[in-house]
Backbone:
């Protein structure tokens, strides 16, 4: 991928394949001060979210198998644990806990090699690499917040 060059880098591109929406439940909080054990990039990428870094329970299991310190993770309350817990966009009380949603769409990214077919002089069909296939992917992240005030962007969706 590092060797790829685009002929028209300023062109607005459309994805050739739409990979759909993936719904992820972020049910574990990560201690920001210990996050460097997971990635050296956390302090730069998540600098504004010092108190609110989330991940999935299945990711935690993977990291624990790799020997990461488990004290950096805190399992968050789930809808089943708190029967009155509702989605933030449906809640009218600003100071009650709720489930917040954040959506992200990656409109265009290179996702695989593209193969084209050609015929030789004898008529035999062969395939060759002729470019990069592009994809689009969407994500929705749901996570617990102790008060709706921490999820005001979810009002509009």
Residues:
């Amino acid at each position: 991928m590092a060797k790829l060059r685009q002929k028209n880098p300023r062109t607005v591109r459309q994805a050739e394949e739409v990979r759909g929406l993936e719904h992820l439940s972020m049910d574990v909080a990560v201690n920001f001060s210990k996050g460097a054990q997971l990635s050296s990039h956390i302090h730069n990428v998540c600098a504004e979210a010092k108190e609110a870094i989330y991940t999935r329970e299945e990711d935690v299991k993977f990291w624990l198998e790799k020997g990461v310190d488990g004290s950096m993770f805190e399992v968050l309350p789930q809808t089943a644990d708190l029967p009155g817990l509702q989605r933030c966009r449906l809640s009218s009380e600003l100071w009650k806990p709720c489930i917040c949603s954040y959506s992200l769409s990656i409109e265009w990214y290179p996702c695989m090699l593209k193969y084209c077919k050609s015929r030789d002089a004898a008529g035999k069909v062969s395939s060759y690499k002729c470019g990069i296939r592009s994809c689009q992917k969407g994500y929705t992240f749901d996570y617990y917040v102790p008060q709706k005030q921490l999820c005001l962007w979810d009002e509009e969706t």
